[in-house]
Amino acid sequence: MSVLRNALARFFSSKPKPDMHIDADVQTAIYMWPIIEKLLAPGEDGDTYRAAINFWRYAERPPLATYDGDGSHCHIDGPLQMAGDFDLPLGGEIFSRGVTIDLDPFEASDLRDHMRAAIERAILAWLADNSRRAFPPSKNPYDRQTADREAKAMIADWVARREAKCHVAEGPDHV
Q1: In contact, 79 and 62? CB cutoff 8 Å
Q2: CA distance 122 to 50
Q3: pLDDT tens for residues 131-156?
Q4: Distance separating alpha carbons of residues 146 and 137, to the nearest angstrom
Q5: Reported pTM
Q6: Other CB atoms closer than 10 Å to residue 157's CB: what's the count?
Q7: What string of H, E and C letters represents the secondary structure of the chain?
């Protein structure tokens, strides 16, 4: 944690929670309030929501979509512009090893379509590879606490199995 972040944390933790006042029209406020509550939530959930949109602070335009690879990244920028029957982004950027490319609206639209098609193919291939196509949609309400607990237990078990697999037993015959 940075020195500045530590100082801010000490400053704000020593005082009651600061009040925030934001002026917005009623329709916008009604729509945004649940999102603001999630962004301000304490703990892992709040941290994750804030991290998911942190890059917005650095964006010149509102991002419509971001796509991250291991060594490449791109974003498609809005707001969308209606052009007849088409909705076109204002542009975008690609960042790849040694390359940065600004995209015009037509290139950004083409890349967005290409990425959506690739994602669709990847999802369908994963479902087929893992024999998950025959599963009916869930009918029960989602139990977040149970699902989180089960997911964290699975992750802990996976970590333990990986560590056990990498562990080399030492004995008298090892130097």
Answers
A1: yes
A2: 27
A3: 888 877 767 677 878 888 888 888 88
A4: 18
A5: 0.69
A6: 10
A7: CCHHHHHHHHHHHCCCCCCCCCCCCHHHHHHHHHHHHHHHCCHHHHHHHHHHHHHHHHCCCCEEEEEECCCCEEEEECCCEEECCEEECCEEEEEECCEEEEECHHHHHHHHHHHHHHHHHHHHHHHHHCCCCCCCCCCCCCCHHHHHHHHHHHHHHHHHHHHHHHCCCCCCCCC
